[in-house]
Amino acid sequence: MPEEETINEGLGLAEAAGLTENAQEVGFNFFASFWQYFQSDLISSIPITICSILVVAAVIERFFFYNRNNRDISKFIQNLQKQLEKGNLEAAQMLASQLNSVTGEVAEEGVRLLAVQKEDFSRAYDITVAIVIRKLQKFLPILATVGAIAPFLGLFGTVSGVIKALFRMSQGSEGASLAMIGEISNALIATGYGLAIAIIAVVANNLFGNIVKRYNDDFMLLKLLFLSFANVNFDVSPMNHQAHNHNEYVNHGEAKRERFEAPQTGDTNRPPYPDFLK
């Protein structure tokens, strides 16, 4: 009777792989084989599934984030340059705030630095850009990590499946060859599963990385624009008056009233930092 159980178990795996008792091809059922692999090798299937969930979540979140901040800045830079040529920093700052994107936040901070920190503008602006770049690169390390480890997780599942198949074959019972075929078929699914997740993660990481580079190029264009006006003496009294009356801001989506306190050694009328620097 133990031999009959072994034969039946082997035939079940073979049927999932698309073979009958007479080794006749009846059509490959991918979902049945995948489910059989998932149940038989939880050590590799669960980590790969977790990786797939992380990839899907990161791709969806980054897609909507970049889409929400996507702006054509060519016209914006032209309008910003016109306001700077007129010496109207207040209008330039308002124009930047109306852009309503990370590029607008950098431009708004650049206008502020142009008014209060001309001598060290380049270094202060680079700090702002570095902070925003980190915001743009959020979750991209997850995609890079999954793209690197997912193929190895799949390979681990394949190796463990082949070991099981060889062990079954070593029993020498009738029907062991069909059981081995089913085990190897399920084992190869692990490699395909890991490779599929890795390909999606690598492609998404490269696409999003190019988007971050495009944002960085936009920030450099803004820096060149600001540096071209670094030697201009602007009238910053309207901005100082506006900063003096500014006494509330929004942090993490919750309204909080706070009195802005400037450093004791600095300009007491310095406007507050934008949201992404808080």
Short description:
The chain has 278 residues and is an all-alpha fold. The chain has helices at residues 2-16, 30-40, 42-68, 73-86, 89-98, 102-116, 121-136, 140-170, 176-227, 237-245, and strands spanning 248-251, 254-257.
Protein model, in words:
This protein has one domain. Helices cover 72% and strands 3% of the residues. The protein has 10 helices and 2 strands. It has helices at 2-16, 30-40, 42-68, 73-86, 89-98, 102-116, 121-136, 140-170, 176-227, 237-245; strands at 248-251, 254-257. A two-stranded antiparallel sheet has the order 1-2. Helix 2 (30-40) crosses helix 9, helix 3 (42-68) runs parallel beside helix 9 (176-227) and helix 5 (89-98) packs antiparallel against helix 6. Mean pLDDT is 77; it is low at 1-14, 19-26 and 241-268.
Helix fraction bin:
over 70%
Overall shape: it is rod-shaped
Low-confidence stretches: 1-14, 19-26, 241-268
As a whole number of angstroms, the C-alpha radius of gyration is 30 Å
State the secondary-structure class.
mainly alpha
Euclidean distance between termini CA atoms: 73 Å
Neighbour order of strands in the largest sheet? 1-2
Number of domains: 1
Indicate the mean pLDDT: 77
Along the chain, the helix and strand elements come as HHHHHHHHHHEE
Number of helices: 10
Largest sheet: 2 strands, antiparallel
| Share in β-strands | under 5%
Number of strands: 2
